[in-house]
User: Which sequence fits this backbone?
C-alpha cells in the first residue's frame, strides 16, 4: 500500500481499455543533481528488492480499496493476484550517478510497473539523498572514521534506511540498533548528558560508566566544565581510557586543548570524538584539529541541504498493438524527457579515470576498451538475482562505492558548488527504440 | 529497536550503579524554530502513543544485543520485561509551539524514559517538521484545498507519516493509500503522464480514463500541448468534466489561459488543479490565478527547507537518594538548558488573541482568566488515555490546529522570515524543582 491513489485508478482505466497488459519500460532517473553537487550516489536498490517480496495486496488493503470505492472489482481481483513478474535492472547500489543516468529500469506490463512507481521512487529518492550527502562527509573526513548518529532527527524508519545508506557511502558504524539487527552493520555509542545529570556528581556518572562498560568506553566531557571533566576521566580511568566526546562549543579550539591536556596527563592513545551538528563543511574545517572520529547526525539524515534526490519514474518505451516497442516521451515545457530504453557505461581513460557517463538509447554504447558497463540485472522474470539484498548487499554496495569513487577525477571531492564532475552523453543508434 | 546504542549502554551502566530506578523527568522541546518561522506545529504525538504499545524487545532483538555484546545479561533481562509504566503528558497534537515550549514530558524511572529518547525524537522531529511546513501552505492557500502528493519524494514510511501530519495541519486529502488505510484520511488522485504515453494517442488515453472513472475525473492536460488537450477533454467529456491538472510551465499564465478556454467552451465548473514543485511561496504567488486546488509534493515532505524540527530530549529533574526531586541541567556552552519540570499555558488577551507562551518551572503559572492551559495527559501509570491515537486522534488534532491558529495574531500567517509571533516567558516559583 506504499502506493499513490492514481496508480490504482490508472490501472483500473488501463485494464478497462485493454492497454494494461502492454509491456512497458519505466526508468528512474534524476534530471539534475542537487544544486552544486559534483556527483550522486545510488542508494536503496537493495531495499527496493527486499520490499518487492512483500509488495502484495492483502485482505485489509483490498477491503479498504473496496469500501472507499478507490477502484472497481476488476481491479481488486487483479491486485489480489499481483506478484511482480518482470525484469528490473540498473546501477548497482553504491555506484555514482549523474544527470540522466538510467539508475533503475523496470520492464514488465504497464499494470505491474505502474503500481510500483511510488515505492520505487520513495526508496531511491530517500536513500540516494542520504548516501550522496554521506559520501561528501567521508571525503571531508579523509581517513578518520565517521559514525552515523542521526536517528533522532528523522522518521524512525527513515533512520534505519539512512544509517544503512551512510554505511554504503563509507561510514564506519552507526548508533542505530535496528540497522545493526537488519543489516549486520556495526553499532556504537557513547553516553548522553542525561546520564551525567542522573548521577549526583560527574564523578559518580563516570565511575558508573567505567565500572559497567570498561575503561575502553568513551566519556562525554562537556556537561559542566571540559577541563575538569577530562582530568577527572583520566584520574578514574588511567591511561587506558578509550575516548572522550565533545558535543558543544568551539570544537576546533577545544579539540586542541583537550588533546594537549590528555597528552600532558599521559593519555596519548585516548581518542577524541566530536559531535554537534557536523556537516561536510564542519568536518573539513576540523581536518587540522586533533580529532579521531566524527559523529554525524542531523546533516546526514536530512541529506545536508538536499533531503530528496528528485528522481522521477517515466515510461520511456512500450508495446503498440502489434507487439512492437515504441519510444515515448512527454513534451511538457521544462520537464521534457528522453524516450527509449537506456543502457550505460562509464567512459574511462587509459589511466582508469572517468571522463564521461555514456547513455545509449535503444542499445549499449560501443565500449572503447577501458569503459565499464554500468547496468546490472536485479530481477529476471520476477526472480531475484542473489547478492543484492540484506547484509551482503550492504557490504557489496560499500565496496562498489569505494571502487567507483577511486575512478573519479579529484575534483569530485571538492565541496564547493560546481557542475557534475563528468558530463552525461547520449549515444543514439539509428534503429533505436 | 528504534533505539540508539548508547541508550542501552547507559541503561546498563545505570542498572549497575543503582541509579536506573531513580525517577526522572525528561522533556522534549525545541530551543528555536527553523530559521525565520513564526510558529511550529506539534506533530507525531498520536504516533508515539501508538508505537509505545509495540515498543518491546523480542527474541530477535535480544539475540542481536547478546550476540553483538551490546549489553550484559542483567540489561537483557531488564529489556525482556520492559513495558512502559510511567506518565506522558504535553501539548496536544496539532497545537502550536514556540521556542522552549515543553512539548512532551516523560516521567518514569530513568531506565524507562532513557530508552525512549530516539523513538520519541524521531517521531516528533519528523512529524512536527512536516506539520509546520504544511500549516504555512494552508495559510497561503486560503480557502482552496491542498492535496498531499509527496510520497515519492521521501522514505516510504515517512510518506505515510507526512501525509498524516499534512492532514492535521489542514490538508484536504492525500494521494497516499497507506495513510487512508491507517488513519481514515480521504485519498485522491488524478493521472500521470505515463498513462497518456501508454496509449497510442492522447484521445485514446482520455477516452479510457473517462470511460472507467467517469466524467468527474481530473485529466492531465500537459503531456503534449495544453490547449489541444483541454479542447479534446471538453469534446470528450462535455460540460461535466470534473477537472484538469497542470504540472509544468508558467502555472500562473497557464491557469488564466486554461480557465478562459474552459469558460469559452462552456465548462465553467471544470476545476483546475495545479502541481509541480509547489511550496508555500509558489502557492501564495498563485493566489490571484484561477486555480481551484493545489497538489503539493516535495516541499511538503521535506518540510519546505526545514526537514527536521530540531527537538531535543533532556533530563530536567530526577530523584536523589532521599527520593526528593532535584532540577538538573547541563551547562555546556551554547547548548545550556533550563532544569525543572515544566507547565505551560497560552496567554490570551480579552479578545482571545494569543500574546505569549508562559512556561512555569515546577508548577503551573497563574492563569489570568483568559489563559488556556496547554498540557494534556496522554499516558498515566502506563495506561493510554483514549482519544489521542488512530483516526480519532488525527481528526481531533486537525480541529485543535484550526482552533489554535484562530487564536494567533495575523502576523503568524506571514511567510517572510521573522521572529516567533509570540514570545516564550518563564515563570519560576521560589520553590520550583
Assistant:
Amino acid at each position: 500500500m506504499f502506493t499513490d491513489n492514481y496508480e490504482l485508478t490508472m490501472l483500473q482505466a488501463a485494464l478497462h481499455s485493454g492497454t494494461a497488459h502492454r509491456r512497458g519500460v519505466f526508468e528512474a532517473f534524476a534530471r539534475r543533481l542537487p544544486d552544486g553537487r559534483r556527483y550522486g550516489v545510488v542508494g536503496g536498490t537493495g531495499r527496493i528488492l527486499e520490499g518487492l517480496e512483500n509488495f502484495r495486496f492483502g485482505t485489509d488493503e483490498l477491503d479498504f480499496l473496496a469500501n472507499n470505492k478507490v477502484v472497481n472489482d476488476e481491479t481488486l481481483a487483479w491486485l489480489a493476484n499481483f506478484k511482480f513478474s518482470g525484469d528490473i535492472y540498473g546501477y548497482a547500489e553504491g555506484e555514482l550517478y549523474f544527470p540522466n543516468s538510467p539508475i533503475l529500469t523496470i520492464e514488465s506490463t504497464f499494470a505491474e510497473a505502474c503500481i510500483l512507481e511510488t515505492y520505487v521512487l520513495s526508496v531511491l529518492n530517500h536513500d540516494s539523498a542520504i548516501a550522496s550527502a554521506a559520501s561528501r562527509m567521508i571525503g571531508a573526513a579523509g581517513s578518520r572514521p565517521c559514525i552515523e548518529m542521526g536517528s533522532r532527527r528523522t522518521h524512525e524508519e527513515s533512520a534505519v534506511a539512512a544509517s544503512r545508506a551512510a554505511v554504503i557511502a563509507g561510514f564506519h558504524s552507526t548508533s542505530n540498533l535496528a540497522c545493526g539487527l537488519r543489516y549486520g552493520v556495526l553499532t556504537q555509542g557513547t553516553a548522553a548528558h542525561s546520564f551525567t545529570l542522573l548521577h549526583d556528581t560527574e564523578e559518580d556518572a563516570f565511575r558508573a560508566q567505567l565500572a559497567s562498560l570498561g575503561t575502553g568506553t568513551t566519556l562525554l566531557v562537556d556537561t559542566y566544565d571540559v577541563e575538569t571533566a577530562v582530568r577527572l576521566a583520566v584520574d578514574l580511568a588511567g591511561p587506558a581510557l578509550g575516548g572522550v566526546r565533545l558535543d558543544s562549543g568551539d570544537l576546533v579550539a577545544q579539540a586542541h586543548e583537550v588533546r594537549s591536556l590528555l597528552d600532558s596527563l599521559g593519555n596519548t592513545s585516548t581518542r577524541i570524538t566530536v559531535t554537534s551538528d557536523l556537516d561536510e563543511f564542519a568536518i573539513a574545517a576540523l581536518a587540522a584539529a586533533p580529532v579521531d572520529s566524527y559523529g554525524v547526525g542531523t546533516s546526514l539524515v536530512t541529506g545536508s541541504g538536499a533531503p530528496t534526490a528528485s528522481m522521477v519514474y517515466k515510461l520511456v518505451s512500450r508495446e503498440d498493438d502489434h507487439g512492437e516497442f515504441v519510444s515515448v516521451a512527454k513534451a511538457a515545457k521544462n520537464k521534457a524527457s528522453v524516450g527509449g530504453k537506456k543502457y550505460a557505461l562509464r567512459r574511462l581513460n587509459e589511466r582508469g579515470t572517468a571522463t564521461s557517463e555514456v547513455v545509449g538509447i535503444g542499445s549499449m554504447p560501443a565500449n572503447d576498451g577501458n569503459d565499464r558497463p554500468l547496468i546490472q540485472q536485479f530481477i529476471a522474470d520476477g526472480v531475484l538475482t542473489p547478492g543484492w539484498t540484506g547484509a551482503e548487499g550492504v557490504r557489496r554496495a560499500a565496496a562498489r562505492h569505494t571502487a567507483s569513487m577511486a575512478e573519479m577525477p579529484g575534483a569530485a571531492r571538492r565541496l564547493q558548488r560546481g557542475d557534475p564532475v563528468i558530463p552525461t552523453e547520449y549515444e543514439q543508434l539509428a534503429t533505436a527504440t
